[in-house]
Amino acid sequence: MPLLIPYSELSSDALIGVIKSFILQEGTDYGLEESTIDEKIERVMNQLKSGKAQIAFDEESGTAYIITSHEAQKHSKVERD
């Protein structure tokens, strides 16, 4: 079960690194017109700020990644069951 980390607890460099890793993954453009990396970073940052996305940390692998709030709720429900 990943830990959910508030984006505000990461340093600016770490936060940008997690976001860049997310947006550079294959298949995360969702068919949108070409955007600059800065525009994509801003879009993901807005999703984090609005609560539509969250940062998860996998302790086993030591990696942080971005998931939707819906995915976070599913993980939370599994943990409670």
List the helices and strands and how they pair.
Layout: E1 3-5, H1 12-24, H2 37-50, E2 53-58, E3 63-68, H3 69-80
Antiparallel strand pairs: 1-2, 2-3
Summarize this entry quickly.
This protein has 81 residues and is of the alpha+beta class. It has a single domain, classed as Orthogonal Bundle (Arc Repressor Mutant, subunit A).
Mean pLDDT: 85
> N-to-C SSE series?
EHHEEH
The CATH architecture term is Orthogonal Bundle
Tell me the number of strands. 3
Largest sheet: 3 strands, antiparallel
**Low-pLDDT regions:** none
State the CATH topology: Arc Repressor Mutant, subunit A
**Total individual domains:** 1
Helix/strand structural class: alpha+beta
**Can you say what the CATH homologous superfamily is?**
YehU-like
Q: Widest sheet: strand order?
A: 1-2-3
> Rough shape?
globular
Cα-atom radius of gyration: 13 Å
Q: What is the number of helical segments per DSSP (H or I, 4+ residues)?
A: 3
- CATH top level class name: Mainly Alpha
Overall helicity:
40-55%
End-to-end distance: 13 Å
Strand portion: 15-25%
